[in-house]
Write a structure and sequence with these properties.
Length: 393
């Protein structure tokens, strides 16, 4: 209501003498993550794009991207005119494998975009070491890991830039939204201008005047978060730790129940992980021990039992109908051969969809009884003669 009646719905509106919610959220989110700066954006894709543009990534450059992630990751690389290089996963975390990343580095590699995926963290020690050794900057996509911690530090603070989506599906959201965090003042300055048409905040705003001044160090576009979204996010941020703790507690209980059931296991929790964010709770089924079931059968049965959406882990990007880089306008013809997603081998990413199922984060917000329902449903799957049922149940 404060925003509604303020007459100021955007950071590029005229100043009313009050501190913007966008700035307040930026300061709060930077502090929460233990970094110096935050640039809120209209969505997570824009956070990734301004991160790469600020790092000077463009035509001819290559960016490492995990072979299994949301299509926004490679699409934002192409949006910058650069080339996504798809890297296979660590089978225990379904995050980008640091060993595989090392093998895919060439003289053109300008960034490694790691994604903390589902409810696991990429091996940050290995990636930070690889980045230091090669001088290739790390971008952490934390769109599925708001608030997670590795060795006592928040994710997003290990790379040069941490990017977040604040979309409806995420654990911190204003419907749409995003943020890019960094400790680097120069990168921050560029990112601010990139998402505000080359403008930045005035040192001392004057009521009645536009609060942004023209800087034009970079060619920007409009990727700003609105005041309504910023106000919602500022409030929601205050609940994030408590909600993450609740999900983590319920997930811990579900792990325990799964261990008792047997033949179904979660993603690896690396010993350096202090706090996990359960964007999705993942389960890997030993299908032989589940009567030779097809994963689609288990998914359909679990959905019927629980009446919540149960997700497949998703196919590798080079088989995704949403990811056809040859449809991109931005890249010159000469690159088309190298661009084809099919040239990448992604055996681990390719296997994931046949063995993993995932539950959305909201199922972990209820009482313990909900977790018992899930575990009981999983347990029921063991006694079924799947061979007698249609494979596409
Ligand atoms: C959601 C998501 C994005 C994209 O965010 P938008 O806000 O939809 O642009 C990028 N990366 C990952 C890993 C995501 O989960």
């Amino acid at each position: 209501m404060d925003v509604l009646h303020s007459g100021r719905w955007s950071l590029s509106g005229t100043s009313n003498g009050k501190k913007l919610y966008e700035l307040r959220f930026a300061e709060a989110f930077a502090e929460y993550n233990g970094v110096a700066y935050c640039t809120p954006t209209v969505n997570g894709s824009t956070a990734l794009t301004i991160a790469m543009r600020a790092l000077g990534i463009g035509h001819g450059d290559e960016v490492l991207v995990p072979g299994l992630t949301w299509v926004a990751c490679p699409a934002s690389v192409i949006e910058c005119g650069a080339m996504p290089i798809l890297v296979d996963l660590d089978p225990d975390t379904l995050c980008m494998s640091a060993d595989m990343a090392r093998r895919m580095i060439t003289e053109r590699t300008k960034a490694m975009m790691i994604v903390h995926f589902n409810c696991a963290l990429a091996d940050l020690d290995a990636f930070v070491a690889l980045s230091e050794e090669t001088g290739i900057p790390l971008i952490e996509d934390c769109s599925q890991a708001h608030g997670a911690m590795w060795k006592g530090r928040r994710v997003g603070s290990f790379g040069k830039i941490g990017a977040f989506s604040l979309h409806n599906s995420k654990v911190l959201t204003a419907g749409e939204g995003g943020a890019a965090i960094t400790d680097d003042a120069v990168l921050h300055e560029k990112m601010q201008q990139l998402r505000a048409n080359g403008r930045r905040y005035r040192a001392s705003p004057r009521p009645g005047r536009v609060e942004l001044e023209w800087a034009s160090d970079v060619l920007g576009w409009n990727g700003c978060l609105s005041e309504f979204q910023a106000a919602i996010l500022l409030d929601r941020l205050g609940h994030l730790d408590q909600e993450n703790e609740k999900r983590e507690m319920n997930a811990g209980y579900l792990h325990k129940r799964m261990a008792d059931i047997g033949d179904v296991r979660p993603l690896l929790r690396h010993p350096n992980v202090d706090r996990l964010t359960y964007f999705r709770f993942c389960m890997k089924f030993d299908l032989n021990r589940f009567g030779g079931a097809k994963i689609g059968q288990l998914r359909a049965a679990l959905e019927a039992e629980l009446d919540v959406p149960v997700l497949l882990a998703g196919g590798p990007l080079n088989e995704s109908p949403l990811y056809d880089p040859l449809k991109a306008l931005q890249l010159p013809k000469a690159d088309r051969q190298r661009l084809s997603a099919m040239r990448f081998e992604l055996p681990v990413a390719g296997e994931a969809r046949h063995h993993w199922l995932a539950l959305p984060h909201n199922v972990l917000m209820g009482p313990e009884k909900d977790i018992d329902d899930i575990a009981d449903a999983v347990s029921k799957l063991k006694g079924v003669n799947w061979a007698s049922l249609p494979a596409d149940l």
